[in-house]
Design goal:
Number of helices: 5
Distance between the termini: 33 Å
Strand order of the largest sheet: 1-2
Order of helices and strands: EHHEHHH
Radius of gyration: 17 Å
Largest sheet: 2 strands, antiparallel
Helix content: 40-55%
Structural class: mainly alpha
Shape: globular
Length: 95
C-alpha cells in the first residue's frame, strides 16, 4: 500500500474564531483581570502560524518519556497526524 502524501499547507496562518461556551461562563470569565483581552479575541479571533497550531494541537497527546512526544521537535515531526485528525474540522484554503 503506498504511503499517504500530503500537499503542503499553502498558508502561513490559521484564523481561529472563539466564543464563550455559555452566558454563565462568559459572566465568570469576564470577572478576570484579562477580560478585555478575552473580549478582543471573541470579537476579532486570532491568527496563529499553521506549524505552531498543528504542533500544539498534538501536545494533548504528549506524555513524559513517550517516544515521539518528548519535545516540540519530536511532536513537530507528526504534523501529518494532526492534519489527518483535523481534516473534518479545519479547512486549509490558502487564505
Amino acid at each position: 500500500m503506498p504511503a499517504i502524501v500530503f500537499e503542503p499547507v499553502r498558508q502561513q496562518d490559521i484564523a481561529v474564531t472563539v466564543d464563550f461556551y455559555t452566558e454563565e461562563e462568559k459572566k465568570k470569565l469576564l470577572e478576570y483581570p484579562t477580560s478585555s483581552r478575552m473580549l478582543e479575541l471573541v470579537r476579532g479571533g486570532a491568527k496563529i502560524p499553521v506549524a505552531e497550531f498543528l504542533a500544539h494541537y498534538l501536545f494533548h497527546q504528549k506524555r513524559p518519556g513517550v517516544p515521539g512526544y518528548r519535545s516540540l521537535r519530536e511532536v513537530g515531526t507528526r504534523i501529518n497526524q494532526a492534519l489527518i485528525e483535523l481534516d473534518p474540522w479545519v479547512v486549509f484554503d490558502g487564505l
